Amino acid sequence: MGFWWPLLVLGIAFAVCRFLLMLIPPKVPSIEVDASDVLEDGSQTKENSFIYIPRRGGVTPTDKVQCYEPATMKYLGYFPALTPDEVKEHVAQARKAQMIWAKSSFRQRRQFLRILLKYIIEHQELICEISSRDTGKTMVDASLGEIMTTCEKITWLLAEGEKWLKPEYRSSGRSMLHKRAKVEFYPLGVIGAIVSWNYPFHNVFNPMLAAVFSGNAAVIKVSEHASWSGCFYFRIIQEALAAVGAPDNLVHVLTGFKETGQALVSSVDKIIFVGSPGVGKMIMQKAAETLIPVTLELGGKDAFIVCEDVDVPYVVQVAIRGALQSSGQNFAGAERFYVHKDIFSTFVAQLVKLVKSVSVGPPLAGRYDMGAICVQEHAEKLQNLVDDALEKGADIVGRGRFGHLGEDVVYQFFPPTVLVNVDHSMKLMQEEVFGPIIPIMTFSSDEEAISLANDSKYGLGCAVFSGNQKRAIEIASQLHCGVAAINDFGSTYLCQSLPFGGVKDSGFGRFAGVEGLRACCLVKSVVEDRWWPYIKTKIPKPIQYPVAENGFEFQESLVEALYGLNVWDRLQALVNVLKILSVQNYTSRTLLEGQ
């Protein structure tokens, strides 16, 4: 007891000191970001507002990216559609800055993250309001998908980022026992990202944070559907970088259309793409010209499986959140619902009751549960999918209700809709919907649910619900997808230590987590002498040039001594290795003495 007592006291003292240090807040400077031109000043009325009426037939690329609020059609302004030469100049500037930033300390990089985190926490309403105005989502949805996910990523990087970028030592194997093996992680250079519109804040910050913390520069092309918000969020990054003395031009945000994105792919050292499978394939083709690594996070059509032993009211709440969040702008797109036949009627009845209470309207004009559809004419596509299902035998059993939309809104809203009697012959169950539609099928056994869930060209995520957690885990383990949530939906992405990505038409590669952070790095394998300079590598005499007559015999015995399955055979082989070496050394000495 006399020996352990001092150690116990020291341990307690250390724990107390660590706790007291945690109570001392770090010194984090504040930054000022000019938001005067993006804030609503209350003077915008129907009479002096500029209502933007986009052309039917989709966005036509021009030299300008026009921006407007999808929920009100209020005009927000425009940004330049950058030419390929302009893109190359941005990348060149970033490359020069990265050469300086690559030498920055982790302490400096962590301070950059803390400054961002402080600003985000203190300006949540501003960030969410800008996201809401540009994409049509509600403030609550913006908080969940923009603020929380980004704060989680920052805090994870602060806690563990340096750990996973330091050299990692590996086993050196049997033949290299005298060596030390390690993996080192170096910045790739300039990380390019082409991101989607559904989370304009997080989709900019997500690749930027990983790239900058790992010593890279970042050049990000924002969606033409969310350029207004993306360019404001860029100001936050610029101010935070300046506050830590980072070089100018380390991070860039680009606006434009297809040719802008193509030029970016051709200029950077790695590309991260978030978007559709069709565009993802074009990204791969372009990246093949320069053979740069690619991470593709493409479409999702997640299966939502509900077993008969669940807490139905809870699962109904999760289901509607997963399907309707931000008019379909959800974490991984719960788009196929499979409910056990024994609780189908109860589940549908409770879901329909809840859906009918959902109000749809301009998210900043009142208390609405769901906002607008961001992309022009997407509501028309949603209706076509519903019509196809109805023609093939499906039934609508419940729809949400509209609030006051305003006479100037052009097809930017779609009511949450529940359908039953659906099957996999319907486009609704095969194509990515990205909208507030809940199609429900029944299943009778776990095997049937697994088969239905795997019957898709997508493989991003899934959610499985059961009162028996082992059962839910077993079902999820047999689903061909990249992420799985047990008795929850979207929780995998809020665990930023986990990699995120899918398989099949949902893409490949991962961002987030250790895998996503290291994917921004040149991974270098290094082997060095373990006990240098006391023990140095020497080539055994039998296999030195010119190779001795017994060179192969030596090599054969060495292989068996190292890797043989039988201990006695290995010992015998080792004796033979030593015998050959002693004979070879004796022969060498004799030859030297003869000379």
- Euclidean distance between termini CA atoms: 70 Å
Q: Give the biggest beta sheet.
A: 7 strands, mixed
Q: Using the coordinates shown, work out and report the CATH topology of the largest domain.
A: Aldehyde Dehydrogenase, Chain A, domain 1
The fraction of residues assigned to DSSP E strands is: 15-25%
Number of helices: 18
What's the average pLDDT?
Answer: 90
* CATH domain class name of the largest domain: Alpha Beta
How many domains? 3
CATH architecture of the largest domain: 3-Layer(aba) Sandwich
What coarse outline follows from CA principal-axis ratios? Answer: globular
Helix content: 40-55%
Structural class by sheet pairing and helices: alpha/beta
CATH H-level name of the largest domain... which superfamily?
A: Aldehyde Dehydrogenase, Chain A, domain 1
Strand order of the largest sheet: 13-15-16-11-10-18-19
Report Rg.
Answer: 30 Å
* Low-confidence region ranges: 42-48, 326-332
Q: Strand tally, please?
A: 22
Keywords: Oxidoreductase
Protein name: Aldehyde dehydrogenase 22A1
Pfam families: Aldedh (PF00171)
Family: Belongs to the aldehyde dehydrogenase family.
Structure description:
The chain is an alpha/beta fold and 595 residues long. It has 3 domains: 80-299 and 516-525, Aldehyde Dehydrogenase, Chain A, domain 1 (3-Layer(aba) Sandwich), CATH 3.40.605.10; 302-457 and 461-495, Aldehyde Dehydrogenase, Chain A, domain 2 (3-Layer(aba) Sandwich); 538-593. It has 18 helices and 22 strands. The longest helix has 28 residues, at 567-594. It comes from Elaeis guineensis var. tenera. This is Aldehyde dehydrogenase 22A1. GO terms for molecular function: oxidoreductase activity, acting on the aldehyde or oxo group of donors, NAD or NADP as acceptor.
